[in-house]
Automatic annotation (TrEMBL):
A Pfam family: CHAD
Origin: domain of life: Bacteria
Name this polypeptide is given: CHAD domain-containing protein
Region (Disordered): 1-34
Gene3D superfamilies to which the protein is assigned, alphabetical: CHAD domain
Organism: Kutzneria viridogrisea
PROSITE patterns: CHAD
């Protein structure tokens, strides 16, 4: 483990095991004939198991993928509870607490992505320019260590443990008498919002608008995952299309952020000119600008694929 990714040296609480929360080790299943609340229980149970599975790795930082998967599970839970808020008791409180946890996970993950991205971009630079890139991102590395301390503190907290227990209780709470809305309605609603947002875009939309589009596409994807057991191939096609849209818009957003951060980091160096650092920063900015332009040109084509895949479902 490198010094820049090591977990802070502080007492860590042992991650809870599923059985300590009264959870079965196998995910709860829901079929086509089951009511919506049963599908919600299955989603809560499965994502809670994923959180527990990836917690230890998120604490150590040895594999950034653990933190990524923990964050994805938290996001999926928030999306499910937002989509069908009446299906589990205490839904607003659960969403609020998941938002708190996501706020502790997000900065570390975002810095992981940004630092690794800039280092990968500089792999073919001359040695002196690679060293300049390391000097440029030194502040980001320090920020990541500070963010990791906050992350570990959150995972060690009684608040986090209480959230795990509340999610476990929600996953095994009695099903309400109301079977809830049609699952396909849960897909149509975020799709229509996304479709409306696309139609409202300017011909050359600002980067911020494309980022919002990505978030809306993510909500559609999570809703489609919830409905997958009843819609089969039709939803699988939509899931594939929305995933591609997310990837294209995600690459665009990552390039935007990386370009802005390199410019900020260079400006923060002050008036002392290190020409290797200036050259390295300029090359990084150029590469991210090219990447941003390339993915900006792709998003409309991927949206048309989403639109076609959604037609049989709406």
């Amino acid at each position: 483990m490198s010094p820049t990714t090591a977990a802070p040296r502080r007492p860590a609480r042992r991650p809870l095991r599923p059985e300590e929360l009264g959870l079965g080790l196998e995910p709860v299943t829901a079929g086509a004939k089951d009511p919506v609340p049963r599908h919600v229980r299955a989603a809560v149970h499965g994502n809670l198991l994923a959180m527990l599975h990836h917690e230890a790795g998120s604490r150590t930082g040895e594999d950034p993928e653990d933190l990524h998967q923990l964050r994805v599970a938290v996001r999926r839970l928030r999306a499910v509870l937002k989509t069908v808020p009446g299906c589990v008791p205490g839904c607003p409180e659960l969403r609020a607490e998941l938002g708190w946890l996501g706020g502790a996970l997000g900065p570390v993950r975002d810095l992981d992505v940004l630092i690794d991205r800039l280092r990968e971009e500089a792999e073919d630079f001359p040695e002196e320019e690679r060293a300049a890139v390391e000097a440029l991102i030194a502040g980001l590395v320090t920020d990541r260590l500070a963010a990791r301390r906050l992350l570990v503190a959150a995972l060690n907290s009684a608040r986090y443990r209480a959230l795990l227990h509340a999610l476990a209780e929600a996953s095994r709470s009695p099903l309400p008498a109301d079977p809830g809305p049609d699952l396909m309605h849960l897909v149509r609603k975020p799709y229509r919002k996304l479709h409306k947002a696309v139609l409202a875009l300017a011909e050359d939309p600002p980067d911020e608008d494309l980022h919002r589009l990505r978030i809306m596409g993510k909500r559609l994807r999570y809703a489609a995952e919830l409905a997958a057991p009843i819609a089969g191939r039709k939803v699988k096609a939509l899931l594939k299309a929305t995933k591609e849209l997310q990837e294209v818009l995600g690459e665009h957003q990552d390039a935007c952020v990386a370009e802005q951060e390199v410019r900020r980091l260079l400006a923060a160096q002050g008036e002392v000119i290190d020409w290797d650092l200036v050259f390295a920063a300029g090359r990084l900015v150029e590469r991210e600008h090219v990447r941003r332009t390339r993915y900006r040109a792709l998003w409309q084509g991927t949206w048309l694929t989403v639109e076609r895949a959604a037609q049989p479902l709406i």
